[in-house]
Write a structure and sequence with these properties.
alpha/beta, DNA Primase, Chain A, Dna Topoisomerase Vi A Subunit, Chain: A, domain 2, Rossmann fold, 3 domains, nine-stranded mixed β-sheet, five-stranded antiparallel β-sheet
Length: 580
C-alpha cells in the first residue's frame, strides 16, 4: 500500500501540496475547531507523518506506524535478519516512568475486587493517577497501556509499543490458557485462583498480537476464550477461533458481561466455574434461519481482478469461493493468473502459491516482469535465440521483492504435492499470516493415491476439499485445470476430469489464443484480439459464456483488456518505494 492509497482509504478529506498529503483531520487527535484543521501532514513518497498541533498532539512517526494505527500492517511478519532490524525500528520500547499504585488507583482496584497481592505481582503500576499495565515479552518491557481509575473508562498507550498479550511470558503451554478481552478481566481470573491467563492489548478489532505471540500460542493444546458478552466480543471470539484453530479453542458462555463483573457480583467460585464450564466449538449439522449469517455480496471481502469485466461478471474473487482456470498448453492460463497474483499483492492481500510446473526461480522471473510492466522492463539481444530477451533491473528487483515481502508465499518446489499436505499448509498460512488467497497450478501435478482410474475421482475430492476450506477459512482458491483437448475452442465441459469438477466450483474461466485453429469458431468481431478470456460460469451472478477480448504484451507478459492501455501500463506500489 502506498501513502496515497492509505489517504484515500483512511484519512478522509485531504489536499496535496509540495509532495505532502495534508489531511483535514488528524487520525490521532481528531480536532474539531476550524483553526486546528489541516495540521496533519504525510509525505507522499515515504509516508512519514506529523501532526502540527504541537501542544495538543504532535504525533509523528513512520508510514509503518500509521498502517499499524489503522490495523493495516496485519500482513507483515518479521522472519529474516533484515526484517528483525526493521521490526526493532518499528516498535519502540516504552520509556515512561511508572510507580507503585497508591491513592485512588489502589482504591479503584480494591473496588473492582482486585487485591494488592494480585496486582502487585502482575505488572500493574501507576502514572499520574491512572492505572498503568506494563506488557513484557521475553523479559523486556514492550508496551505500557493506561486506563483511568474511574468508572468512566478511557484507554491509551505509549506510542510505538509492541502489541503482545498481557502476561505472555507467564503462559504455561501445558495448562489450558484463558484469553480475556481486558486487563481487569485477566486480574479477576487470577484473583479467583486461575493463573494461566492473558488479555488482548487493544480490543476486539486488533489481532496484531497473534503473529507476535504465535510461537507460544502454537504450543498451547487448549485455549479458552472469555470475551465480553456483546456483539464486539462475539466478533473477537470468531476471529480468534479462525486464527488459533477450532480444534483447540473453547468458549466461555455466561450471561454476565465479563470476568471482572462476575467476580464483583458472584465471587471467585463463579469465575472458576465459568472457566471449567467452557465448551468446545459446537458442530451444528443443521441451523435455523435466524442462526445463519447474513449474505451481502457487496460486503464480502474480495480481491479485485485487474480486468474490469471480470469484476463485473465474477464480482472479484470473493472469500469463500473457488475459481477454475483452464486453457490449452501455451494459451496463457498460468500467465493470466500470475497477473492476478500481482494484483493481490498490490491490494495488500497475502497470497500463497503452489506452482507444480514452474520452478520457483522461473516463476519469480515471470512475476517480476509483470510487476515491472512494459515501460520498466529492459531488453538485451540474445544471440542464441537471435532476438530480444527481457529482464528487470537489479534496482527494481530489490524494490519488487521488498514490496512483495510478507504478501507472497511460494510453496517449496521440492516439497510434497499431496492434496492434504497442501491444504494443511494453506491452513497454517491463514492462521499465522492471515493469508486468505491461494493458487494451485495445476490440478494435474498433485500426488493422488491409487491408480490412474482413480485420478479423476481424487481430483473431484480435492475440489470439494478446497471448497470446504474456502468457506471455513474465509478464503479464495484459484485452481488451474487442463482441458481434455489440446487445441481449438475450450468449453466448460472440456475441463479435464469429471464434469463434477467444474460443477462444484463457483467460477470457471478459460483463456484461448485467437489463431487459425480458433477463428473459424469465433465471431468475427473477436478476431482482432490476441486471446479470448471466456467466463463460462459465475455461480453468484448466474453469468455464462462471456467472451472478453484480451491483448498480450510479450515484453512484460501482461494480459490486458482490448483497448485498456491503462491496465497495460499500470504502475504497482513498488515503484515509489524507497529501499536503501
Amino acid at each position: 500500500m502506498r501513502p496515497i492509497d492509505l489517504a484515500d482509504r483512511k484519512l478522509g478529506e485531504y489536499k496535496q501540496r509540495n509532495g505532502e498529503i495534508i489531511a483535514r483531520s488528524c487520525p490521532f487527535c481528531h480536532p474539531q475547531k476550524k483553526d486546528n484543521l489541516y495540521k496533519f501532514y504525510m509525505n507522499k513518497e515515504n509516508g512519514a507523518f506529523k501532526c502540527y498541533r504541537e501542544n495538543s498532539c504532535g504525533k509523528t512517526g513512520s508510514f509503518y506506524e500509521l498502517l499499524e494505527h489503522f490495523s493495516l500492517e496485519d500482513n507483515f511478519e518479521f522472519d529474516d535478519d533484515y526484517n528483525k532490524d526493521q521490526y526493532k525500528k518499528s516498535y519502540q520500547k516504552p520509556t515512561s516512568k511508572t510507580t507503585e499504585p497508591k491513592g485512588k488507583v489502589e482504591e479503584y482496584l480494591d473496588l473492582r475486587c482486585i487485591s494488592k497481592e494480585t496486582w502487585s505481582n502482575h505488572d500493574v503500576k501507576e502514572k499520574d493517577g491512572n492505572i498503568a499495565f506494563e506488557y513484557y515479552q521475553d523479559g523486556e518491557k514492550v508496551l505500557i497501556k493506561y486506563r483511568t481509575a474511574t468508572k468512566a473508562k478511557k484507554y491509551w498507550q505509549d506510542g510505538g509499543g509492541k502489541p503482545v498479550l498481557w502476561g505472555i511470558d507467564d503462559v504455561d503451554a501445558n495448562t489450558p490458557l484463558v484469553i480475556t478481552e481486558g486487563e481487569l478481566d485477566r486480574l479477576a481470573v487470577i484473583e479467583a485462583g486461575y493463573s494461566n491467563v492473558v488479555s488482548v492489548p487493544f480490543g476486539v478489532n486488533n489481532m496484531k498480537w497473534v503473529k507476535h505471540c504465535w510461537d507460544k500460542l502454537e504450543e498451547c493444546e487448549e485455549i479458552i476464550i472469555w470475551a465480553d458478552n456483546d456483539e464486539a466480543g462475539d466478533k473477537m471470539q470468531k476471529e480468534i477461533v479462525k486464527r488459533l484453530g477450532e480444534h483447540k479453542c473453547k468458549l466461555v458462555d455466561v450471561e454476565i458481561n465479563d470476568a471482572n463483573l462476575m467476580l464483583f457480583e458472584e465471587g471467585r467460585q463463579a469465575v472458576l466455574d465459568a472457566i471449567d464450564g467452557a465448551e468446545g466449538i459446537p458442530i451444528a449439522e443443521f441451523k435455523q434461519l435466524h442462526e445463519i449469517e447474513q449474505f451481502d455480496p457487496s460486503e464480502i471481502p474480495k480481491v479485485k481482478s485487474k480486468f474490469p469485466l471480470v469484476n463485473k461478471y465474477f464480482g472479484g474473487y470473493m472469500e469463500g469461493m473457488v475459481t477454475i482456470w483452464s486453457g490449452t498448453n501455451g494459451s496463457g492460463k498460468s500467465t493470466i493468473l500470475n497477473g492476478e497474483i500481482i494484483e493481490s499483492i498490490d491490494q495488500d492481500k497475502p497470497i500463497g502459491v503452489v506452482s507444480g510446473e514452474l520452478p520457483n526461480s522461473m516463476l519469480r522471473y515471470w512475476l517480476e516482469l509483470k510487476a515491472a510492466g512494459p515501460d520498466m522492463v529492459k531488453g538485451k539481444y540474445d544471440s542464441v535465440r537471435g532476438e530480444q530477451s527481457y529482464y528487470v533491473s537489479k534496482e527494481d528487483k530489490i524494490k519488487i521483492r521488498e514490496w512483495a515481502k510478507n504478501k507472497l508465499f511460494l510453496y517449496d518446489d521440492g516439497a510434497s504435492l499431496s492434496p492434504s499436505q497442501i491444504l494443511d499448509k494453506f491452513k497454517r498460512l491463514r492462521m499465522k499470516y492471515n493469508c486468505r488467497n491461494f493458487v494451485v497450478d495445476n490440478l494435474m501435478i498433485l500426488s493422488y493415491d491409487g491408480g490412474f482410474k482413480e485420478k479423476y475421482n481424487k481430483q473431484a475430492q480435492f475440489i470439494k476439499s478446497c471448497k470446504s476450506f474456502a468457506r471455513k477459512y474465509d478464503s479464495h482458491i484459484h485452481i488451474v485445470a487442463h482441458p481434455r483437448k489440446s487445441d481449438g475452442i475450450i468449453k466448460k465441459d472440456d475441463i479435464a476430469g469429471l464434469y463434477e469438477v467444474s460443477n462444484l466450483v463457483d467460477n470457471v474461466a478459460a483463456i484461448m489464443r485467437v489463431n487459425d485453429d480458433t477463428k473459424p469458431n469465433l465471431p468475427e468481431e473477436l478476431h482482432d484480439a490476441d486471446s479470448i478470456l471466456a467466463l463460462y460460469k459465475s455461480r453468484l451472478y448466474g453469468q455464462e459464456n462471456i467472451m472478453i477480448k484480451m491483448m498480450f504484451n510479450p515484453e512484460s507478459k501482461r494480459f490486458y483488456q482490448y483497448g485498456d492501455g491503462d491496465t497495460k501500463r499500470k504502475e504497482y506500489g513498488w515503484v515509489n518505494m524507497d529501499v536503501n
